[in-house]
């Protein structure tokens, strides 16, 4: 998490910077870890099922969760071997690959968290102000209630959310300060899942549900390689590794971290699978990259279902993202600070730098959220590059490097397998995305010419 041997502590107040404070429990760690995992990625899980079919998507969710557990176990095993500095992800990267390794992690975490936070703002804008996709307009909650007005526009609504709601939360300086909002955010994610399940059950009994495909429909794909575009979406949905050490630092027993990670991965896998299945069951092949946009009057999220219930589904998850936002913003701010101001005192102890950097990052995130219209493409490229390195390639490389000689042969075999799978699937996904973009541009040019 930091640059100078990767200190994670700039995001903590001094009283927690000396190691394990004994203030956080396993349940608190589970809440914070689960909040780190379940973010905007859940909104694209139904779209991933649309691409893959239900059965392959469920297998992929389980496989990525398993690999995430293995990679975190690798990270924790090497934690504490760094010659100096508090335990952190960048610390073990710096121990294995020097300053270049720690700096590389800073850059990748900064890009990953920035991309994810931009997606959060895009989804919040979709929910409140509406979105457009596949040629269809999807109204937001404010537009449905008050019709189109200047203050229901996307730019103004997101600006108000950034300044009035999110900024006070990201100005808190301790991760553990968010343990209650993290708990509420998980409950809101569960509420969204339950509402979606309830709507789906209603549509099943009313005969309006759309039976989901168990396997891919190759007739809808430009090539079989398009299936790989769903892989980075799932990988990004399980990328939480940059928050492992800050959360571990606040546990009373460091050994409890493995238990907390596994509970969180199981919990989040179940939520991902349920939301993906029921979302795909509701909307079928009309499922949008941001499934929340489907919950409007025009989409028909279950004929006869009160629109208030559809709005409750959208608002519950938008509020969940609001509460998740500051937890990821901590990671973004710390890594950018380490890149821009190496060797400076901890960020939490320098109020002027803390506030100025926070304001600059929030302004940049707002600008990107207004400029980028869709979450799917952002997920694909971020998941294929930065996220796959953070969650799979870097932990595997640390084990293969094994500067302290603690890795077993089976560990190195697993690490090599992780890296090979990550490189192959990401390369195919990136190539498929580029070819699809080129094909789309060519079709557009022909349409204009005709």
From TrEMBL:
Membrane topology: Multi-pass membrane protein
GO molecular function (one): L-amino acid transmembrane transporter activity
Keyword NADP: no
Pfam family, one: Aa_trans
First-listed, main subcellular location of the protein, grouped into a coarse class: membrane
InterPro entries: AA_transpt_TM (IPR013057)
GO cellular component, one term: organelle membrane
TM regions (residue ranges): 47-67, 103-123, 156-172, 184-205, 225-244, 265-284, 315-332, 353-372, 378-401, 413-435
Keyword Transmembrane helix carried by entry: yes
Keywords, in A-Z order: Amino-acid transport, Membrane, Transmembrane, Transmembrane helix, Transport
Residue intervals of the Amino acid transporter transmembrane domain: 23-431
PANTHER family to which the protein is assigned, alphabetical: AMINO ACID TRANSPORTER, AMINO ACID TRANSPORTER AVT6C
Protein name: Amino acid transporter transmembrane domain-containing protein
Lineage of the species this protein comes from: Eukaryota, Viridiplantae, Streptophyta, Embryophyta, Tracheophyta
